[in-house]
Write a structure and sequence with these properties.
By secondary structure, the chain is an all-beta fold. Helix content is 0%, strand content 48%. Strands 2, 4, 5, 6, 9, 10 and 11 form a seven-stranded mixed sheet that branches. It has a four-stranded antiparallel sheet with strand order 1-3-8-7, with no helix packed on it.
Length: 127
């Protein structure tokens, strides 16, 4: 069992940057691949970014590639989502999720693969 708590959301203007954090409980954080998803009002939740359990590989959705990137600090049980060049269409609730994996280089990209979810943090980007 792992509990996830996101933080770092807020209101900012287009073009700005924000870093989300997701702190995980437990001593087995390094066995989980971590993902970021988002859900905008009236839309389905969608994949944003994910990072392997080792932190050696990450993957971003096409619509954020070059602007967002995931990183992690296994010593701190924390995963981050660095968001640059934010746009109004990035406005959403952002969720982190954990998937226990055996392959150090596997990066899960679908919601169904993730077992644990945080409560979400709101990001609002004004034009």
């Amino acid at each position: 069992q792992v509990q996830l708590v996101e933080s770092g959301g807020g209101l900012l203007q287009a073009g700005g940057s924000l870093r989300l954090s997701c702190a995980a409980s437990g001593s087995t954080f390094g066995t989980y691949a971590m993902g970021w998803f988002r859900q905008a009002p009236g839309k389905e939740r969608e994949f944003v970014s994910a990072i392997s359990r080792s932190g050696g590989l990450s993957y971003e959705a096409e619509f954020v590639k070059g602007r967002f990137t995931s990183s992690r600090d296994n010593a701190k049980n924390t995963v981050y989502l660095q968001m640059n060049s934010l746009k109004p269409e990035d406005t959403a609730v952002y969720y982190c999720a954990a998937d226990r994996v055996w392959n150090s280089f596997y990066v899960p990209r679908t919601q169904d693969e993730y077992d644990y979810w945080g409560q979400g943090t709101q990001v609002t980007v004004s034009s």
